[in-house]
Specification:
Chain lengths: 131, 131
DNA sequence: CCTTGATCCTCCAGTAACTGGAGATTGTAA
DNA sequence: TTACAATCTCCAGTTACTGGAGGATCAAGG
């Protein structure tokens, strides 16, 4: 299949597929006589893997590592497990940060009763040095 | 005061202060004879405002809008309130997304019992097309 | 007076992970 | 044949900084 089809099949943009090849997540696809990239079903699977990992928030370099493990079936999956654990911790930290932001934003919004900027709790709250 | 001091006072890097000037969040600072930027107390307040808004996750262009409201004391703060509400919604969406990721990551990690990559629930889970 | 170290200046490149577009081919269907 | 879709390569732009090179300036100590 050509690039458009694998892109559609995996919910990826054509340019992004080419980009993944460029940065080495996908191996350089063999080409047709006219130079078009040709993909096999295994490539779809690999691209699904990549998209899914990215969708879970793994960085490209982490995806690269996960693919390495995936490519070596006999390899101990310890590395993958560590990556996942660390990533999970990062995600949880982000959640906490966002929840703190959320509380502050709610506080700010409550302080605004719709007058002029001078009286506005949002503007005033942002101007205050303390959190 | 010079740039180093305002940077220290607000927890901002010197380069970042210059950057904020470049993109117009801070007005071009007057210069000393030798060309160094000179700041007043009001600039510290403004920079605090900017840092605080950025810390709450507002984008630079949103901060620009918030500053506009702040700079026009008689202006209705409706725009600021809208920005804050929309941003709050975005933050809440992000939280939900991250919580979904978290659940999936926990599920993946549970599926790994430390064997080879072939048996690994993490690798296997990523390879499956369904969420 | 001279040197040293801190601070400042401008300009520029790099980061992450794509995304979009220009300009040129190629493939295909009516 | 003619149109139109899909592909190719190359390159610039996005966000919000961050860091560094190379060079000027300033204050303090000897």
């Amino acid at each position: 299949m050509q690039i458009g089809k694998i892109a559609r099949a995996t919910g990826t943009k054509v340019n992004t597929v080419r980009y993944y090849e460029e940065i080495g997540l996908l191996k350089p696809a063999p080409r047709s006589q006219s130079g078009r990239r040709i993909y096999a079903d295994a490539d779809v699977e690999r691209l699904v893997f990549i998209r899914r990992a990215r969708g879970l928030g793994f960085s490209v370099s982490e995806v690269r590592s996960l693919l390495e493990v995936s490519d070596a079936p006999n390899r101990d999956c310890k590395d993958a497990a560590n990556l996942a654990r660390n990533h999970l911790r990062r995600v949880e930290e982000q959640i906490e940060q966002l929840q703190a932001m959320r509380q502050e934003l709610i506080g700010l919004a409550r302080a605004c009763d719709g007058g002029t900027a001078t009286d506005c709790g949002i503007i005033g709250g942002l101007a205050r040095k303390s959190a």
